[in-house]
């Protein structure tokens, strides 16, 4: 057989159309016995597929059909991960998932341990109530002492005492709506300088102390905010579903499951005396697995994000444990933590602080790892011939922008939560080193910096894992073309040499 000579000029248009109809543009194989069939998932055919003319047996041409671009019949993103690589990923994640399940079973608390109410802070009985009437009265007539205060009114205490003696107070009648004393009423005196003023028909929360005198057993502690909070939650859910559609629904389901794991496992297990760090690691791992796979599907892409999140959580745990111990942070810095330590002395408060660091970092970690993995996958889809180094360099450029925004977000989130405390230090005109050295602020600094280090590290770790996985799957080289086989004019040599590199496989 002689070698066919190719003319430098393109063939006539009818011949190109005929060749396209025979599969040159779409990679469809001919149906003769000499044709090479390759109908893989997604009905895609890589370069190098033999084409038979269908006119006589054995007349198939072994040239590849590539025109410098990929043409695919697949629908949706395809992750080119082979069965072998899926087995490697499963070999890591299946034992880890099994360990998380075993930890949940072994440490499952079955509810918070009971205790006697102290009546302090949140640890008191509460009921729902309604303000039925509010009348204005003289503060002097309802205060215990009728003497006019003579203190300095330029101070906050002196000014408050002056208002209580000479100002106008409110006398509110409150009706208990729940509990054994439903329908019972009591009066509440509201001073003019109180930050919360009561209004008629307002829904409130009242505290109940059975050991107090009968006329002092109930007192208003807060406002009932269930309706506005429920409405806001409904608006949030509606916005997520309208914009995210099915993904949004899955995200809400994952959010609900995360809340259940937190309230049914993590908190009761810590109260029952289990190691807070172990509980936080198991609980956050369960939340991570459930949330990521529910929201993003069971795929190699999601599994890589899970691995990147896991590595970053381990780093946060190690750094947090080291610096919390080195800085001698006790975790007992305010009234709430003091009450917890008083009720449950066996709880390791520094371990509880570390558990909070891990759980608080998990939500942002999920965002970073999923974004980086998706970016690498899309880069590979755009250029299947790009090696892992090229994918890593391109992905890390995206990650640098993500790092800048995420770290700033985390710092501002903690600063916003501690804004009243920062204002207090500003009023006291304390120096920066004095403020930072206080345990209350040092806890937030360690929490912020350890979490930020984990977030920064998650970008190169996840990007490298995704680049290695997505580029490691390379089908074998295409069979060489028979001697004398023609290569159509305009066919890019790189497309032929690439073999099946552009072929996609199941996730």
**Major sheet: arrangement of strands:** 3-2-1-4-5
CA-CA gap between termini: 43 Å
**What is the alpha-carbon Rg in Å?**
34 Å
Average pLDDT, rounded to a whole number, is 74
Could you please describe the fold and organization of this structure?
With 507 residues, the chain is α+β, with helices and mostly antiparallel strands. 53% of the residues lie in helices and 8% in strands. It contains 14 helices and five strands. Strands 3-2-1-4-5 form a five-stranded antiparallel β-sheet. Strand 2 and strand 3 form a beta hairpin. It is elongated and about 85 Å long. The chain starts with 12 loop residues before the first helix and ends in a 10-residue tail after the last helix. Mean pLDDT is 74; it is low at 1-80 and 475-507.
Keywords:
507 residues, alpha+beta, five-stranded antiparallel β-sheet, 14 helices, 53% helix, elongated, disordered C terminus
């Amino acid at each position: 057989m002689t070698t066919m000579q190719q003319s430098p000029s393109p063939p006539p248009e009818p011949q190109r159309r005929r060749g396209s109809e025979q599969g040159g543009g779409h990679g469809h194989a001919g149906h003769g016995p000499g044709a090479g069939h390759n109908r893989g998932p997604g009905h895609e055919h890589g370069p190098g597929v033999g084409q038979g003319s269908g006119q006589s047996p054995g007349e198939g041409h072994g040239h590849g059909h590539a025109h410098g671009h990929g043409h695919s019949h697949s629908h949706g993103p395809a992750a080119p991960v082979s069965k072998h690589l899926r087995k490697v990923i499963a070999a890591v994640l299946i034992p880890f998932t099994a360990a998380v399940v075993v930890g949940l079973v072994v440490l499952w608390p079955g509810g918070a341990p009971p205790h006697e109410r102290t009546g302090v802070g949140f640890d008191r009985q509460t009921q729902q109530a309604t303000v039925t009437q509010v009348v204005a009265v003289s503060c002097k007539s309802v205060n215990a002492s009728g003497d006019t205060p003579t203190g300095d009114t330029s101070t906050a205490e002196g000014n408050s005492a002056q208002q209580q003696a000479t100002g106008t107070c409110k006398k509110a009648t409150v009706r208990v709506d729940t509990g054994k004393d439903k329908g019972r009423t009591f009066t509440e005196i509201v001073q003019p300088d109180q930050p919360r003023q009561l209004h008629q028909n307002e829904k409130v929360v009242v505290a109940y102390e059975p050991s107090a005198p009968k006329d002092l057993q109930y007192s208003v502690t807060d406002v009932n905010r269930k309706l506005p909070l429920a409405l806001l939650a409904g608006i949030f859910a509606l916005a997520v579903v309208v914009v995210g559609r099915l993904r949004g629904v899955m995200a809400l389901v994952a959010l609900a499951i995360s809340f259940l794991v937190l309230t049914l496992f993590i908190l009761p297990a810590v109260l029952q005396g289990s190691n807070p760090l172990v509980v936080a690691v198991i609980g956050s791992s369960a939340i991570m697995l459930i949330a990521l796979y529910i929201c993003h599907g069971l795929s190699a892409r999601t599994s890589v994000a899970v691995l990147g999140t896991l590595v970053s959580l381990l780093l946060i745990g190690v750094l947090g444990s080291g610096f919390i111990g080195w800085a001698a942070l006790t975790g007992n810095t305010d009234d709430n933590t003091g009450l917890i330590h008083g009720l449950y002395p066996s709880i390791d408060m520094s371990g509880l602080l570390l558990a909070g660091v891990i759980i608080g970092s998990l939500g942002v970690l999920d965002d970073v790892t999923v974004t980086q993995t998706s970016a690498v996958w899309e880069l590979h889809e755009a250029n299947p011939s790009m090696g892992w180094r090229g994918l890593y360099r391109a992905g890390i450029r995206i990650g640098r922008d993500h790092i800048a925004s995420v770290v700033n977000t985390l710092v501002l989130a903690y600063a916003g939560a501690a804004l009243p405390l920062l204002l207090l230090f500003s009023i006291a005109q304390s120096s920066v080193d004095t403020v930072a050295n206080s345990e209350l602020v040092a806890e937030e600094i360690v929490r912020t910096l350890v979490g930020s280090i984990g977030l920064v590290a998650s970008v190169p770790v996840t990007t490298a894992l995704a680049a290695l996985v997505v580029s490691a799957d390379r089908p074998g080289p295409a069979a060489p073309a028979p001697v004398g086989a023609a290569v159509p004019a305009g066919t890019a040599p790189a497309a032929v040499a690439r073999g099946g590199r552009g072929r996609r496989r199941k996730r």
